[in-house]
Automatic annotation (TrEMBL):
Highest rank taxon of the organism: Bacteria
Primary role: Catalyzes the reversible transfer of the terminal phosphate group between ATP and AMP. Plays an important role in cellular energy homeostasis and in adenine nucleotide metabolism.
Record-linked InterPro entries: Adenyl_kin_sub, Adenylat/UMP-CMP_kin, Adenylat_kinase_CS, Adenylate_kinase_lid-dom, P-loop_NTPase
Gene this chain is encoded by: adk
Source organism per UniProt: Planobispora rosea
Residue ranges occupied by any Adenylate kinase active site lid domain in the UniProt entry: 127-161
Location in or out of the cell: Cytoplasm
Pfam families: ADK (PF00406), ADK_lid (PF05191)
Protein name: Adenylate kinase
Amino acid sequence: MRLVLVGPPGAGKGTQAQYIASNLSIPKISTGDIFRANVSGGTELGKLAKEYMDRGDLVPDEVTIAMVRDRLSEDDAQDGFLLDGFPRNVPQAEILKKMLAEFGVALDIVLELVVDEDEVVRRLAGRRTCSQCGRIWHVDFDDKKDDVCDACGGSLYQRDDDKEETVRRRLEVYQEQTAPLITFYADEEILVGVDAAGPVEEVTGRAMEALAPYIG
Ligand SMILES: [Zn+2]
């Protein structure tokens, strides 16, 4: 199975990517992992990417695409893969389609984690981080009434990333960038949405159910 996983920040995409890939016995390929592997492995593409990153510039699309192509050419990706973090936009989706066609294959499915915005805000904005041990607590899920870490007694604070206005802005940016990609895959008739609310195992269960008809 060749699949792409998309989902907004706070939908637990990284965790789901891992579980779904492991359930399907396919490699999880995230752009973050590919970048790190190329940079630490000192590949030509890694060196090139590092030059941009060291200058504080964005790594150009061509470099990312070349890294994805290399990764998809590896042995373990020949019988399937789960892509996480790529493609990010319609031009990248078109390039991926062409690239896979050259390999003689195609995407089977694009799985979209669907969440309610207010649910994401509740999930992220309720997080409190321990200033001493770094452990994360949740005001609702851990029934945290005080601002004290139960593990070490340190004081808890809300990270800037978890502030409601930051979360809402990230969601807006995501919707803006991803909406055209979702439309693209809906038009290709390979888009499947999965409700990503609730406990991790339940979401994985729903994802596997949604994928079942496509598992050959
Ligand atoms: Zn602590």
